[in-house]
Structure formats: C-alpha cells, structure tokens
Design brief:
mainly alpha, single chain, about 45% helix
Length: about 120
C-alpha cells in the first residue's frame, strides 16, 4: 500500500506502529506475556507467533549492527517514509514519550532500507 500512496502523493497514518508492543522488546519468545501488555487477548496468539518473533529478531540484529535501538528502527524508519503523514505511538509515561520522539529522529539511508528489507525476507 505504501508504494501506491507514495506514487499518488497520499499520506498514511499507521495504526499500532509498534505492533502492540512487540517492537518495544516487551514481549519475548517463549515467555508469558505480561498482564499489563497492549496485545488484546483475542489476537495474542497471532501477534506472538514464531514468524513475528523471527521478524523482530531480524530487526533487532539490524539495529544492533548499527548501534540503534529497536524503537529507533521501528519509529524512525516508519516516520522517514514519504507516504507517512505522522507516526502515533502510545506511551504510558513521560519517559516513553521522550524515547518515542528521540526514536523518530533516526532516518535510514537507502542502504539501510535495502538491508532491512533483505533481513525481513
């Protein structure tokens, strides 16, 4: 959808850009989800799947190789897309708001985008 939006000059406002907390490191493979998590019970199994954790592992490795946080890659990478009008990420504390703002400042290079795309195949 993003390529079509970019082609026609349309903007998108992503819903759940942190995948209900999956891209924050809050959830771990093989560990019971915390009771205060944002993933609703009705779709917890789908969100906490091995396939999704494989993607998180790939993004985490990409981030680590560049000295970035998972949050920076998730929010900064998304915010830098031309078709993204804005990124709204939930926060439960002032510290999370500050971290989200800081994360949104990272902008990937074309090489970063290509490497990340390869990592997620």
């Amino acid at each position: 959808m993003l390529p079509a939006c970019e082609r026609f000059g349309l903007g998108q406002l992503p819903y759940f850009p942190l995948a209900s907390g999956l891209l924050t490191g809050k959830y771990q493979r093989g560990v019971a989800a915390p009771a205060d998590g944002r993933i609703a019970a009705w779709h917890m199994d789908a969100m906490l799947s091995d396939a999704n954790f494989d993607k998180v592992d790939a993004i985490t490795a990409f981030a680590s190789e560049r000295g970035l946080s998972l949050l920076q890659v998730a929010l900064g990478g998304l915010a830098s897309r031309p078709a993204i009008a804005s990124v709204i990420a939930g926060a439960t504390s002032p510290e999370q708001v500050a971290a989200n703002v800081e994360a949104g400042l990272w902008s990937p290079t074309a090489e970063d985008r290509a490497a990340l795309a390869l990592a997620l195949i």
